[in-house]
Design goal:
single chain, mainly alpha, 2 domains, 72% helix
Length: 322
């Protein structure tokens, strides 16, 4: 099967599920400072219900971490070969915005993999969790590479959009993939900023993350407002293959809210400012928008879920439901 950047949706979705399980354990199970580890689970003191739930989450986290890392290794090799074939890459970048926006999926997926290594994988491997600070510098270098790639891609894609006729009637919520990728790159950078014991590493990651967060937020507000305008103007929903992409706003909002929350952790740690109010605002504001948009989408797409979701073919946009 011919390579396409959309293949990276598999490790991207798998990593998202692994992080869901990890985040639940991180916030539900009392433990010391830092990220939760397998040894932090008080198995002897847990009830039967807790034991069953936590073991299920651990199995989910392990299975989907393996899928994320394994599929990333396979598709990364194909991605390198695809980029090396300059003709295929150039043709893809110069294609319409409803297609070339998919070039951001590998960046988003690799950012997700970085978070899987720092969290779910470290949960299982004591050598990683006990030497997390040793990963901060390599993590910063990897984040820097992703940072350079995503800005280069964004400027390249913008140049294509501005230099070629743009059929606005073909734009849909897939157009937000670059915003999503900026959110995941920001999550990686702010994670380093919040966790790093070295002020130099933390400050570098935080400063660079502010660039991705700023441009990402600008793109989100601009694109989302324009997409809503086009949708109202169209007086009808797009095709079935595009409908699940409405849910893409949910992970985007969570990513930006959590990234800004991590920035407040960095500021509080290194500048001793009381950031509790801002932390509360960023987390709750993002999740209020998330819940509100989710309920709105369920109502808006109710007929699709009733009549088509279980019967139709798989559409790439369905990973946005994760």
């Amino acid at each position: 099967m011919k390579f396409t950047p959309l293949k990276f949706q598999i490790p991207l979705a798998a990593g998202g599920i692994a992080l869901m399980a990890f985040n639940y354990l991180q916030f539900a199970v009392p433990h010391g400072k830092g990220l939760i580890k397998l040894s932090d689970l008080p198995l002897a003191a847990m009830s039967t219900g807790q034991t069953g739930l936590y073991l299920l989450l651990i199995m989910i986290m392990l299975a989907f971490s393996v899928i994320n890392l394994g599929s990333t290794a396979v598709y990364l090799k194909q991605l390198i070969q695809w980029v090396a074939n300059k003709t295929e890459y150039r043709d893809f970048i110069n294609s319409p915005p409803t297609k070339n926006i998919a070039v951001f999926v590998p960046v988003a997926s690799l950012s997700m993999t970085a978070n899987v290594v720092l969290a779910p994988l470290a949960f299982f491997i004591p050598q990683l969790s006990s030497n997390l600070q040793a990963l901060m510098l390599p993590g910063l270098i990897f984040f820097g590479i992703l940072w350079l790639i995503i800005f280069r891609l964004e400027f390249r894609v913008l140049k294509t959009w501005l230099s070629h006729p743009l059929d606005v009637t073909q734009l849909n919520f897939i157009w937000l993939l670059d915003v999503f990728a900026f959110g995941l790159v920001s999550l990686t950078g702010t994670g380093i900023a919040a966790l790093a014991g070295s002020e130099e590493i933390a400050s570098t990651a935080a400063f660079a993350s502010l660039f991705t967060l700023s441009l990402g937020c600008f793109l989100l507000v601009t694109k989302l407002a324009y997409l809503i305008y086009l949708q109202i103007k169209a007086h009808e929903l797009p095709g079935k293959a595009i409908l699940p992409a409405f849910f893409l706003v949910i992970p985007i909002t969570c990513l930006y809210g959590y990234s800004f929350y991590r920035i407040t952790l960095y500021v509080q740690k290194y500048f001793s400012f009381d950031m509790r109010m801002l932390s509360f605002f960023f987390i709750n504001f993002s999740y209020v928008i998330t819940v509100g948009w989710g309920i709105f989408c369920l109502y808006l797409l109710s007929n699709y879920f009733k009549r088509d979701f279980l019967k139709s073919d798989f559409y790439p946009t369905q990973w946005g439901l994760v």
